[in-house]
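Example 341.
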Amino acid sequence: MWDFPIWPESASTVAPSVEALYLFIVALNIGMTALVFGLLVLFSVLYYRRADDQVPPQYHGSMLLEIGWTAIPTVICLIVFAWGVKVYAELVVPPADSMDVYIVGRQWMWKAQYPGGQREINALHAVLGKPVKLTITSEDVLHSFSIPAFRVKSDAVPGRYTTLWFQPTQAGVYHIFCTEYCGTEHSRMIGKITVMEEGDYQKWLSEKAELGDALQGRKLFAKLQCVTCHAGESQARAPSLEEIHMKRIPLSFDKGSPVAPGATVLADENYLRESIRYPSAKIAAGYQYPSIMPAYDESLVSEDEMFQLIAYIKSLKKGQTPTRNEHTTTPTALGAPAGRP
Ligand SMILES: [Cu+2]
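Predicted structure in complex with copper (II) ion:
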């Protein structure tokens, strides 16, 4: 009968560490409160004024006390800090073999995209014991993606990718919440994550089979005419995108280009996205500012399509850029001088 959960289940590898730290801080607070109020009561009983003319002995400072109440709280705070750093590091670094899932938040739903092209709304599926890395963004306002049973949460920020990861330790169905007030139907921006065995998961995937993200991205790459500039064989018009993911890219320090001389950038998902949305934000070395590449804004490339393009670029190996179709015309950036420096 009694079903009033005050504590979510603990269903991921990081949950016990988050919980232990949390409980330690709660215990510390309870202990401090008990100490202060206990002494208050004790001293009231021991030292209350017994006669109208009673004057207590006067003290003017105590070195030992001063050092004590400075050093002890400092040590306690440093313990909480060091412990917090350890748990935080665990929470932010996904294992290398994590499965990628892309999440787009919008008023008021969560959309999920799998590398195989499968899509879901307000639902996620994961494999028991297998790490999953979520790359999260928003199409409109700030949201926050949270799975309390896994003790993970990350803001969904328009214009930027954030990540979180988890490894489920228990099969079952768990809540997904939006934990950032985002408008009238915020409280209904909820979902479920189903943790299943590998076999069931593969079955589920194949039932929802679609053209994979990278393949959809390849189609977009042709349709949006990226290929007219980013040709594999020649870097005359634009840099090659083959094996660019997680490479260090030297940037150009051109007149007006907003970066410091000698700057480089790591070609992670955020950089790839920025390069497509705002090509002139950072110019690859050897190319002119402003970029001749047109800015692909939301009307040309939605956030869902952006994930597909990025999945495609990540999959692009040496010599795999599709050959340029000579019948397409090259789009140019509005107002920017065409051609190469
Ligand atoms: Cu929301």
